[in-house]
Write a structure and sequence with these properties.
- The protein is about 50% helix and about 20% strand.
- It is an alpha+beta fold.
- The strands form 2 sheets. It has a 6-stranded antiparallel β-sheet, sandwiched between helices. A 3-stranded antiparallel β-sheet has the order 1-3-2.
- A hairpin with a 2-residue loop joins strand 4 (about 110-115) and strand 5.
- Helix 2 (about 10-25) packs across helix 4, helix 3 packs across helix 4 (about 45-60) and helix 6 runs antiparallel to helix 11.
- The chain is globular, with a radius of gyration of 21 Å.
Length: about 260
């Protein structure tokens, strides 16, 4: 009798999650993995991990990088292309607005989009000052930390938030936890903006506003500055500029989709 194929062995919702988790371990920071390292990372047996790797190789998503290590193949580029094709060109649309705001306040301005359980920097225009916020394109951010990411957390449903926050809340201070209640997040979602004090880096204040398309939040735009050079009047001005930037970008995103119909 023929041995079961990897497809038959890797079945069920739990196995599907583990299979996808194995694929998502491959990142720019960690582009190659051995089966042993993957098994340790995913808390799986080496035998099970071999099955997942075999299936991913079978469908052309993984290939050998060396004798013992594996890498993703160029086939994943089609997934990246599909992602871009299904979304408005956010960075291209937002860049002129972001640049204008940066020129007015001379602080770094960023746009972020949620992907699963993290926020990712889509693009940024950096301050020209020596002390500034620095983020790389594609950099991941925790959804519960900082105004830019928390704005995206606020746009999630109550049940989605609860699933995300359940393992997180116990690790946070009471002050930080207070910023993540449904009441606070619902308010941020309703008004379309929020601010943060020293949530990601000590001595840094930030604000962010929601970018929408057809009424749904698709991203956030924000800025951050050292508290020592951002008094209340300065912060109020930056909040107003960021909220206006979010509105302008939202209008341009909807215009893009209207012209694509």
């Amino acid at each position: 009798m023929a041995a079961p194929s990897p497809q038959n062995k890797v079945s069920g919702a739990g196995s599907s999650r583990k299979l996808l988790s194995a694929l998502l371990c491959f990142t720019e920071e960690r582009p190659t993995w051995t089966v042993t390292d993957l098994a340790s990372e995913l808390d799986l047996s080496v035998t099970s991990t071999y099955r997942y790797v075999a299936l991913l190789r079978e469908v052309g998503l993984l290939d050998s990088a060396s004798q013992n290590a594996y890498r993703v193949t160029d086939r994943v580029l089609s997934l990246a292309g599909a992602c871009e094709a299904a979304q408005a060109p956010l960075a291209e649309i937002a860049l002129p607005v972001m640049t204008r705001v940066r020129d007015e306040i001379d602080e770094t301005v960023l746009v972020a989009r949620r992907g699963g359980a993290a926020a990712y920097c889509v693009d940024r225009v950096e301050s020209r000052r020596p002390v500034r916020l620095q983020f790389d394109r594609g950099q991941a951010m925790s959804l519960h930390a900082g105004s830019l990411a928390r704005m995206l957390l606020a746009s999630m449903s109550t049940s989605e938030r609860a699933r995300y926050l359940e393992p997180v809340l116990a690790t946070l201070s009471a002050a930080r936890t207070a910023m993540l209640t449904d009441e606070v997040l619902d308010h941020a979602h309703a008004v379309g903006w929020t601010e943060s004090f020293e949530e990601v880096d000590e001595g840094i204040w930030g604000c962010a506003a929601a970018i929408t398309s057809q009424g749904a939040v698709i991203a956030s735009v924000g800025t951050a500055a050292p508290i020592f050079r951002s008094d209340q009047a300065c912060r109020d001005r930056m909040i107003e500029l960021i909220r206006q930037a979010a509105k302008e970008i939202s209008v341009e995103v909807d215009r893009h989709w209207a012209s694509s119909d």
